[in-house]
Amino acid sequence: MVQHDEHTATAREHRSRAVARVGTPSxxxxxxxxxxxxxxxxxxxxxxxxxxxxxxIGIWLGIGSADETGEQAGAAHFLEHLLFKGTRRRSAAGxxxxxxxxxxELNAFTAKEHTCYYAHVLDTDVALAVDVLADVVTDAALAxxxxxxxxxxxxxxxxxxxxDPEDLLGDLFDETxxxxxxxxxxxxGSETSIRAMSRDALHxxxxxxxxxxxxxxxxxxxxxxxxxxxxxxxxxxxxAAAHIGDPPVxxxxxxxATPVRSGALACExxxxxxxxxxLGVPTPGRHAPGRAVLGxxxxxxxxxxxxxxxxxxxxxxxxxxxxxSSTVRYADAGALSVYAGCAPERLxxxxxxxxxxxxxxxxxxxxDAEIARAKGALxxxxxxxxxxxxxxxxxxxxxxxxxxxxxxxxDSLAGIDAVTPAEVAALAAQILNRPLTATVVGPxxxxxxxxxxxxxxx
Length: 458
What we know:
Elements: H1 17-20, E1 26-28, E2 33-38, E3 42-48, E4 54-61, H2 75-82, H3 92-101, E5 105-110, E6 115-122, H4 126-138, H5 144-162, H6 165-178, H7 191-196, H8 199-209, E7 215-221, H9 225-235, H10 237-240, E8 265-269, E9 275-283, H11 291-302, H12 308-315, E10 322-329, E11 334-342, H13 347-362, H14 368-384, H15 389-403, H16 409-417, H17 421-431, E12 437-442, H18 452-455
Parallel strand pairs: 3-7, 8-12
Antiparallel strand pairs: 1-2, 2-3, 4-6, 4-7, 5-6, 9-11, 9-12, 10-11
Helix pairs in contact: 2-8, 4-9, 11-14, 11-17, 12-13, 14-16
């Protein structure tokens, strides 16, 4: 099943088993994880998963919307559409027909700091998946007619976002928290930037940024690492040829240059039956210590049915059907935020209750039992979420792109187990006492129409 578009060239005459294994493969025998450096700065990470008959494989790029200029806003996501529209060897229909005939899935996603093009196929169709993915990512046609066709599709996607209050709210929160920084812009761009983006600009962004030193190929399932290395080296050899001898691009590092605007308030009008609220605080980026501690804090605060927020807002007061907290961690900054959707006349009370819960947690009020439940929920979610090959492939790709290393499931579980109530209390005091940034999407023309409990934040 193809859910987007694609293109690239494999040139199997350049295949070389000897070259495919350049570098020193590393292995984690416990997890079946192996890593190899391939020509052109390309990296391959695989995990053999016994007892399955599928393989999930993805080409990850350390490029996302955070790498775009204002004029390029939405380019990475636009390319996600365009690359599937055909290559020099395959039409869009041909791509779809090949994947459907194999019963496979082909798709992609764009995030703020990375992009992934992936396939999920039977273990007998790994060669097809590698060939199609490489073709799509490195040899797309980007025909002018397809650019105009997909421009309309992306503009429709922006309109759909605008019709979804929760999605619109998330983008508004990022804009309010990060301001003019690229992290504050929507991944899909704006109507203005998409309408103005030329085929040459898209082609230049693609050729300039989608290079093999920025690529990580991640695969998980019933596979042989060396066989996959041969397939990947052959399929990507034309793209790698221009970068022979180049090292891989390292993970993004902390620069301290990402601005955040604590205490800001914004709203956007939407003729909806509900008021949609998001409020939160900045957190350190992903390279800062305490990742497991933040995970436990977030889960205890609003990550499940027994969380403090769900119990206080939904179960005890019935103020909102949906309420939860979540975290994002970029290289340079992050955020912990709370979402709630409620009747407009209840917004003020919801804000007061949420602020009260945040104040309690900041004061160290989480009990040992709440923290133990949060740790159990995280452990279970981590293990259950690793039981399918796409999830394992995602874990491999993100770890390599974000950190340049792999962490075993056992190490992650041990990190959760090691979190103490004192550490959670200390982190809560550090971040939850910061001024809250808040955004609202609902039937409000201006922030002056918002409840007093929100206006005082701004």
